[in-house]
Amino acid sequence: MTTNIAQLLRQASRSLATVSPTPELEAEILLAHVMKQPRSYFRAWPEVVPPPDVCRTFLDLLERRQAGEPVAYLVGTREFWSREFVVTPQVLIPRPDTELLVEKALERIPARTSTIADLGTGSGVIAITLALERPNSQVIATDRSIQALKLARHNAKRLRAGNVSFIHTSWMTPLTQHRFDVIVSNPPYIASGDPHLKQEIRFEPADALIGGHDGLEAIREIVTQSPCHLRPGGWLLLEHGYDQASHVGRLLAESGFVSIECHHDLQGHPRITQAQWSP
Ligand code: GLN
What pLDDT shows up at residue 176? Predict the structure, then answer.
């Protein structure tokens, strides 16, 4: 029996309805990936019957998706700030919330030469986006995962971001010579016992998600290390959990930061806190 594109997509979205809030879209993304065609192709050619090997690969991906694997890992890419980044299961999948962190960081980064640090860069989305949006700046991105750095370098090369360099370290440990205008980070901030870790995010690296028993371990370290790495008047911007804003604000105030301000994500959760270093 032959199955055309329209029928394949209908069956696929039915089978994804239990795992996905957007089954039609996900079915199209997976089929587009397998057929190496844009999604618009399906609108133009719904009657086309894909070859058997395409159908097999597609069904295989559907099965993995039904078992909970995230689409970004299945297709190997994710869009961030309108650019395509390669992602693998070694790095966190970039989130729309993190675009708010980038937006707020850009407001603090003047078009003149500036130096920026992105701590725990993962796939490199934040560092590379800032580097491309502010071509006169120099961006340093760190991560303690060699595999993440390798992927981040690959993304920087693909997107031709020449003004970003990558350093293998935990947060900022060997960067003693550097003073930055802006430090940004989307650190791991989920508490180790959080039941969310059993959901779909279980496919993402624990190191990128878990911030110790209360979720604040990495944030504490970054807030403590940042004053010696910021120019007077420089800014620290952090992404954090929806229920961590008051903790993060307190930590920043205790370390001597001023102008502490929190921004809400698309769901209305307090998600990004920024603060200025004013010794
Ligand atoms: N900076 C990367 C991102 O925001 C990785 C963050 C992380 O691994 N916690 O996607």
Answer: 65
Say which residues have a Cβ less than 8 Å from residue 92's Cβ, sequence separation at least 6: 122, 123, 186, 204, 205, 208, 209
Could you give the CA distance from residue 39 to residue 29 in angstroms, rounded to a whole number? 7
Distance 188 CA to ligand 1 centre (A): 8
User: What structural domains and CATH numbers belong to the chain?
Assistant: 5-68 (1.10.8), 91-277 (3.40.50.150)
If you take atom 10 of ligand 1, which residue's CA is the nearest one? 94
Question: Which atom of ligand 1 is nearest the CA belonging to 123?
Answer: 2
148 Cα distance to chain centroid: 12
Ligand 1 atom closest to Cα of 92? 8
Atom 7 in ligand 1: which residue has the minimum CA distance?
208
The whole-number pLDDT of residue 200 equals 86
Helix (H) or strand (E) holding 235: strand 230-239
pLDDT averaged over consecutive 10-residue blocks of the chain (279 residues)? Answer: 91 95 96 96 96 96 96 97 98 96 95 92 98 96 96 98 94 74 97 92 95 96 94 96 97 98 96 95
What lines the ligand 1 site, CB under 6 Å? 92, 94, 98, 120-123, 125-126, 186-188, 208
At 1 the pLDDT is 62
pTM of this structure: 0.94
- Ligand 1 atom 4, closest CA: 186
